[in-house]
Amino acid sequence: MKKKINRMLMLIAVLAIGMTVSLITMLFYNLFRRQVIEDLRDSALVLSQWDEPEELEQICSELGDNGVRVTLVAEDGRVLFDNEADAGEMENHGSRPEIVEALADGKGQSMRRSQTLAKSTFYYAVRMDGGRVLRIAKDAGSIYGILWNAVPGMLVLLVVLFVLCMVLAHLFTKKLVAPLEKLAENLDGNEYEDLSGYEELTPFFNMIKEQHRDIMKNARMRQEFTANVSHELKTPLTAITGYAELIETGMASGEDMVRFAHGIHKNANRLLTLINDIIKLSELDSTEQEVVFERVDLYQLARSTVEMLTLSAEKHQVSISLTGTPECYISANRQMMEELIYNLCDNAIRYNNAGGSVEVQVYPRHREVLLVVKDTGIGIPKEHQERIFERFYRVDKSRSKSTGGTGLGLAIVKHIVAKHKAVMELESESGKGTTIKVIFPDSIDG
Ligand code: ADP
Prior knowledge:
Blueprint (H helix, E strand, L loop, with lengths): L1 H46 L5 H11 L4 E6 L5 E4 L14 H9 L1 E7 L6 E8 L5 E7 L1 H45 L16 H47 L5 H32 L8 E4 H18 L3 E6 L4 E4 L1 H17 L6 E9 L2 E8 L6 H4 L11 H6 L6 H11 L3 E7 L3 E8 L2 E2 L2
Parallel strand pairs: 7-9
Antiparallel strand pairs: 1-2, 1-5, 3-4, 4-5, 6-8, 8-13, 9-10, 10-12, 11-12
Helix pairs in contact: 1-4, 5-6, 6-11, 7-8, 8-11
The site of adenosine-5'-diphosphate has 23 residues, from helix 8 and helix 11.
């Protein structure tokens, strides 16, 4: 990037210098040219008081060689006098543009290559009172000469300007890129924030910084998740291997055998549940898989989930009930909704006390639809409430495991809620119970 900016700046500098030089040259050339013509006109006006060849010859020889050519032309174009050529041998000048012009208008000028002297020449001609034309000419080479004399100075100036541009472009590029380099060097720190003069870059910096933080956080979370998953998988597998080994060595009697088989069965189930939850989470994580939304009656779904969990509730000596408004339609993914209601109700039963209750409510409120799962269970202490939606976070690990928890249920719930642009509210008091509200933004007419 540095090289590119540098190259661009140099190109601009070269173009600017080139254009300036061309313009100045053109300007000076025009200026000199005008000056030469003015000088010629003045000389012509002064010399036009002598209209005889002899007089002019005398004046010219008195003036000496000053680079000015004087020609006297008769009305019919014959050359009567020329201080630089033999008038007698010169061809008729009646058709020379400046003479034609002078004969017609009193004065004429032109710039062309002289046929007599074979040089680029400026001409100025005036018609005298008697009808003859006096023409003064000057070699254009004098202008080129002046310009040519300026070349060495110009070249030195060009080189100085070019070097100056190079140094400035280098410094400017360095200054421009400095904050970016600093940003790259310490993405984690805040040092670059105090670089003043780059206000326009501040949003860009903040965005990069935020993205970098997110990336780092994600990487850390992924790493933690992998470590947790490995650990969680290892425990039931170790148990299974242990039981299998005991059976293999023939150490188990008939009664033990049943116990070991039960152990294997339980742990294998645990593995399956865990793997299922991990698959669900990874599906929810993937952005490629498109979620299919359909019109779903949330009340109806809650009813079937409550029915499904009645047996489990009975086992835990917990009563479960559903209240609210039948036919509450929302746009949602049916499978995800089932998963969400199931996980919340399952937790409400598992973290309950014998004789406790779970109340599920589904009802509309303005344009919203609410799903409330309320239990009279053990509650969640304040300090854990923020974290229970994290993967594998449990308040009481042994209780979670003994009731078949994976520590992933609420993480799945959180993901599903986000996919449906819904909001979740948690209210819980240790020893009293927990209420989780999920608020869906838009109800759909039945
Ligand atoms: P688990 O599989 O362990 O239940 P979850 O992600 O569903 O994992 O829940 C995380 C933790 O939050 C649980 O281990 C438990 O400590 C706590 N928790 C969840 N729901 C409730 C509830 N209704 N009452 C009390 N504690 C709960």
